[in-house]
Fold this protein.
Amino acid sequence: MSELVGNMLVAQSGGPTAVINASVAGVIQEAGKHPEVIEEIYGGLNGILGILNEELIDLNDEKSRAIEGLKHTPAAALGTCRYKIDFKKKPNQAAKDMDRLFDVFMGHNIRYFFYAGGNDSQDTANKIHDEALKRKFEMRVIGVPKTIDNDLPHTDHCPGFGSVIKYNAATVMEVAADVSSMATDDGACCIVEVMGRGAGWIAAGTVLAKRSPNDAPHIILLPEIPFDEAAFLAKVKMVVDELKYCIVVVGEGLKDASGKEFAADTTKLDSFGHPVLSGAAERLAEIVSAKLGTKTRTIKLGYAQRAAAHFASETDVEEATACGSAAVRAALDGKSGFMVKLVRLSSNPYRWTTDLEDLNHIANVEHLIPRDWISADGFLPNEKFVEYAQPLIEGELHLPTERGLPKFVTLEKNRVEKKLPSRS
Amino acid sequence: MSELVGNMLVAQSGGPTAVINASVAGVIQEAGKHPEVIEEIYGGLNGILGILNEELIDLNDEKSRAIEGLKHTPAAALGTCRYKIDFKKKPNQAAKDMDRLFDVFMGHNIRYFFYAGGNDSQDTANKIHDEALKRKFEMRVIGVPKTIDNDLPHTDHCPGFGSVIKYNAATVMEVAADVSSMATDDGACCIVEVMGRGAGWIAAGTVLAKRSPNDAPHIILLPEIPFDEAAFLAKVKMVVDELKYCIVVVGEGLKDASGKEFAADTTKLDSFGHPVLSGAAERLAEIVSAKLGTKTRTIKLGYAQRAAAHFASETDVEEATACGSAAVRAALDGKSGFMVKLVRLSSNPYRWTTDLEDLNHIANVEHLIPRDWISADGFLPNEKFVEYAQPLIEGELHLPTERGLPKFVTLEKNRVEKKLPSRS
């Protein structure tokens, strides 16, 4: 293998997580060990969007302490975007964008490009890899997996997922203590709405709070299982009759039998054209109140769940960091057009490693919960899911605090001098 | 002072908090030191409601480890209720209830009664104290303050408040990191709805996340300040124009200029006749989206905020425990008809002690944020509030965990044998 000497660029894309910065830290720390090959370590601000604007920062200028601190700092320290290079819908803009990207890559001699993100971001990484081949520009492109939704295929799970379900499960445990302690004869129901879009992984993960049969959550409504109002109400009634209270967790992307999203507001689309989801818990609460007369409250954790570094999973942080390092090692090994994936060696004791998957196998495939990981009645994931998910929440970070609140790092973000004319 | 020898009863009432169990632990641990006076240590299940049903448990039967563990266990370990003895609206039921309560007190020789709760619960404690005098039943009744809302008068602050604002401020800090890292030119707004009913203390507490001028929260809508839509929208626009994102915190009890609750659903009342509040964030999000065209998301922390023991304030836990012990010491000292209050000796360094306040001065008085603790434009609490609130969030608990989640205690709840006929 001939050594490819040049500069490196890392960027983040899509919705942030509690540990996507740990992946960036893994990339930077690993890259820093190879100065004879990787000469400069740059970060692209706001993903592809910032790279198009030639907004690069010099990550070798950051304090080592700050890079290490990224491992407990939530959100995207480099900034992120949801910008898509869409050859199908906007072929002219996409071609123009691709030209500009390669102007930036060539202008700054970027030979190593690491992109941390979910499905759409891996698709972008794949397109860049293809273009580099087409343009005969020698470059190594490796995707780093990231998504709380855990819906990337081929990887055992996604960095970000363990932390979101750890926080959500702790929240369900705490809320259940609260609601059950207030539950007198009238009964009480609390509905917790969680993220995950069309995949139920995040909702399912709250089952880890259930440590004995009567523990919450009592019902988990997964997007994988069509919502059946009558069966749901019967189950809520049964639980309230028995325990005086019922904790329901609902995935935001819950669908009815026709496949229509239960709470989709189709008048709002995000920039990838996906409908904006909101309000599943509120809609369910209206149904429970009206049909059962049970006092019902809602919780919508929203972005709080994916940013909750204060209760992140240590396992998740380690894996996220390892995915970043593995990406750099793969690139140095001559690989391009791959995504790092997590491979489980055993669940108990939990052992894992990283490997690579062809980006062509990743992009735009949505990985859902297998039906046989869900109870027959569809209201709870079963022991197969628990075996899978339990190791991912183990371990607590020792988060530094300052005056009672988490102490997160912010980067200096010293800009790399621009070499190109402004983007037209 | 002649010693009053007899049994003790402690109960919890109203909405739970992360630290109300710490107060109960304080009561139990202090009472346990005086077996020559306090012979049995009983807990009443579900507040007054359980006591009416003679549902008492023997707290001396619980493991010491479990009592200590109450200090990091959220919600009401003894159960709680919102039952009110209402001589005004239901005089016959109230008279009957009071007779029954004293049947239970006399039947079990309850000479010490400690009731942990907020305004309504202190009112109940006061009525029991008055009745004991009227009935010439020698008994010592002390209220233990508890409310996340921080709206009790005379006490510097309420146990439960420090923990809720610590968790909420950390959440705002994390959500701000998330939203700002996604904020590209279009701008983004996130609205976080917090509890507190008519008082803005909880909403105001999130200002502690603001450690430099551009930090979130950027706008806090307090129930103390009438909502002015035009001024609010202008402020959101200004912040988004400058920073590309804006984090808004709204207290659930926000009111308009006419005093009408912004998001009150007057069709639903709780058992004290207060309207059920919900949806302030959703309503604001609709306004921001429609009028400014800014992408807006909402978070409704709901019960999660008051149950969040996993990020409770160590200061709060210490104070809650101390209020419990102080209640017992006051009663042993012959006092009755008082609530324990927290007295601040200095803010920096933070020093405090406990004292007593006549229950007649407490019940049904709502303590709001002074106007001169709020900025001139009404959108943020000022440095006076920060000086007040900062010490209350200091210190982190060392929460035990088990398989990645908090390990909370549950009590054995061995029942005290009933001596009375069932409640008619």
Notes: Chain A has twelve helices and 15 strands. The mean pLDDT of chain A is 94. The first helix of chain A runs from residue 20 to 31. Chain A touches chain B through 63 residues (CB under 8 Å).
